[in-house]
């Protein structure tokens, strides 16, 4: 067995043993709670209630270097694996089917993602303000929320940006990574006429692109806390404690204040359905005849339970699961609800529509110069040593480092032609392959795709109660990747820029860097440097970048497809909000984690101040 296979097998075993033990222990706690229950209302004990499909993140999910191995691992119980319908223009090597893995644990995918921290362009947030008619989403206002949650500890290219753009006392520690190749990256950018700037603060308006350092989020400062949100069909936790999970920790700290100030309201726990409750055994939001949400019905270890909300129910299931729970609860396209025989509570045609994701191609490059800084290569005799070091302390050594390297944000020619010269639509960067320690990939990411997909609802599976009608069986996932011709054109330009960097600049030429990627079988008859070859290549190997947003988008009152308003309130239903990536009407032009965190911080801040 090769190293990658051995590591994956080891991780899978460690994760599964951890999950199995947690499930056994949690089942015992559940049964004990049922046996000792004196009253169906536990408001004296719980002020907030988190419903989460999984348990705590397993220790094996901590290391950043192997986040893809854990994130895509379907052999354990920490992921939901959603498989798309066949795509016509992307990933044809895999028959057009794309897997989106969502973490099934506290914090979801934030518990095992790549830890990359880029806010996105100011234009992204200004566009949210325009689409919602709410100026509070403009970047000049959102910057306050970013600074409030950050404790920035890193090095900056532009040191003068620190005071104006970064917070220093927030719960989330953000730093910069400075790999050996960073100086070559900056030199290459200068040669090509790009500016070396902070890629987080303002992405430097009116320039063709920005070459910047990689940012990462590291273990945050923790306090004792309780957590609200994520109502799924699984166990709940209180006083969750220290986790290597930045989204849960951040929200926990914020909502600890909400508890003490009694502004969020209380979710009271009710073990058995009472008279008048729906007998539907599928997880759903409880909505009364006045169109007001008052709780959730769910299962814990297969035992039906109900949680009452004295004030609000807040939904944070993610872009693929939130629309499924809304539809199960009678909120969604009217014809679809009626066909599924689900009583219509609020006919919102936009639920499940507007699905968006970044799409990317990976190009493999190899350096022939043994002194290259492109990829710090381990000798054969060092691999075992580093792996043993990693097992002893997963936060030290080569195998604990980030896989993502330096990045660049580039404005394509078609974006410039559209008057968007200050709004990058391409993200380029180096990626270390954790499966092959001796390979370096160059990621060309479509940062502002125009193609729009849908999270459909499998009515047949719902009516058959297939797999208890869980989200994976219910979601009909169609990203419609690259169906807008602008997207393919932007990727083609990004590939050209990638070759210009890696084979056309002196620092990488000095390393002897050459393209060493494999040719897809379907493309062998095209000349390798032709446009026809790269169009074929994109169709064969392109993949989603695991950043889905938009399926419950927020929008202006005049937008019939908007699911929530700018304050996250579900249209037509009182006391119900969605607070997750699904409400973003369009993608930020980079990794979505910081945007999701800041939307949550905005929501909490407004709720505490009475503006929500």
From TrEMBL:
For this UniProt entry, which segments traverse the membrane? none
The keyword Flavoprotein belongs to this UniProt entry's keyword annotation: yes
Binding positions (FAD):
113-116, 264
For this protein, the record's SUPFAM superfamilies field holds: FAD-linked reductases, C-terminal domain, FAD/NAD(P)-binding domain
Instruction: State the needed cofactors, names only.
Output: FAD
Question: Which interval of the chain is the signal sequence?
Answer: 1-17
- Which positions are tagged coiled coil? none
Positions of the Glucose-methanol-choline oxidoreductase N-terminal domain: 91-201, 283-359
Top-level taxon in the UniProt lineage? Eukaryota
Q: Which GO terms describe its molecular function?
A: flavin adenine dinucleotide binding; oxidoreductase activity, acting on CH-OH group of donors
Q: What is this protein called?
A: Oxygen-dependent choline dehydrogenase
């Amino acid at each position: 067995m090769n190293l990658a296979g051995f590591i994956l097998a080891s991780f899978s075993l460690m994760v599964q043993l951890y999950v199995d033990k947690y499930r056994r222990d949690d089942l015992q706690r559940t049964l004990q709670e049922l046996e000792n229950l004196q009253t169906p209302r536990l408001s004296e004990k719980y002020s907030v209630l988190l419903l989460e499909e999984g348990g705590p993140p397993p220790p094996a999910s901590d290391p950043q270097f192997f986040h893809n191995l854990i994130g895509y691992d379907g052999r354990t119980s920490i992921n939901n694996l959603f498989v798309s319908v066949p795509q016509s223009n992307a990933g044809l090597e895999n028959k057009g089917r794309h897997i989106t893995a969502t973490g099934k644990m506290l914090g979801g995918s934030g518990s095992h993602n790549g830890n990359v921290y880029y806010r996105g362009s100011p234009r992204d947030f200004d566009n949210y303000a325009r689409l919602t008619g709410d100026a509070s989403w403009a970047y000049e206002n959102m910057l306050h929320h970013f600074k409030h949650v950050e404790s920035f500890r890193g090095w900056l290219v532009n040191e003068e940006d620190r005071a104006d753009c970064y917070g220093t006392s927030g719960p989330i520690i953000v730093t910069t990574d400075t790999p050996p190749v960073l100086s070559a990256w900056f030199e290459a950018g200068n040669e090509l006429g790009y500016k070396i700037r902070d890629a987080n603060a303002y992405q430097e308006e009116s320039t063709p692109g920005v070459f910047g350092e990689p940012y990462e989020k590291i273990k945050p400062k923790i306090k004792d806390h309780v957590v609200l949100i994520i109502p799924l069909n699984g166990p709940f936790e209180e006083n969750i404690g220290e986790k290597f999970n930045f989204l849960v920790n951040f929200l926990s700290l914020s909502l600890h204040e909400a508890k003490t100030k009694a502004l969020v309201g209380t979710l009271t726990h009710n073990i058995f359905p009472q008279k008048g409750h729906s007998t539907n055994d599928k997880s759903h939001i409880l909505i009364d005849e006045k169109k007001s949400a008052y709780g959730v019905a769910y299962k814990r270890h297969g035992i039906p339970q109900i949680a009452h909300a004295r004030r609000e129910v807040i939904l944070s299931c993610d872009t693929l699961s939130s629309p499924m729970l809304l539809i199960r609860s009678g909120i969604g396209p009217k014809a679809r609800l009626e066909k599924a025989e689900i009583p219509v509570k609020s006919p919102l045609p936009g639920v499940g529509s507007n699905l968006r994701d970044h799409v990317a191609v990976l190009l493999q490059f190899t350096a022939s110069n043994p002194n290259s800084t492109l990829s710090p290569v381990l000798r054969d005799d060092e691999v075992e040593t580093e792996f043993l070091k990693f097992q002893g302390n997963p936060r030290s050594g080569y195998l604990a480092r980030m896989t993502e390297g330096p990045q660049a944000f580039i404005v394509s020619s078609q974006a410039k032609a559209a008057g968007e010269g200050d709004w990058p639509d391409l993200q380029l960067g180096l990626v270390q392959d954790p499966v092959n320690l001796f390979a370096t990939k160059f990621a060309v990411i479509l940062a502002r795709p125009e193609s729009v997909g849908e999270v459909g609802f499998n009515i047949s599976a719902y009516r058959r109660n297939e797999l208890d009608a869980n989200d994976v069986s219910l979601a009909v996932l169609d990203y419609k990747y690259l169906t807008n011709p602008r997207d393919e054109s932007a990727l083609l330009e990004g590939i050209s820029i990638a070759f210009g960097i890696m084979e056309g600049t002196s620092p990488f030429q000095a390393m002897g860097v050459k393209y060493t990627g494999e040719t897809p079988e379907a493309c062998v008859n095209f000349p390798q440097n032709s446009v026809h070859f790269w169009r074929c290549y994109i169709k064969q190997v392109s993949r989603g970048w695991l950043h889905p947003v938009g399926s419950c988008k927020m929008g202006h009152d005049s937008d019939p497809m908007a699911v929530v308003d700018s304050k996250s309130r579900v249209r037509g239903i009182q006391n119900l909000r969605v607070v997750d990536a699904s409400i973003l009407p369009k993608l930020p032009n980079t990794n979505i984690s910081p945007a999701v965190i800041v939307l949550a911080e905005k929501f909490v801040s407004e709720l505490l101040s009475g503006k929500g």
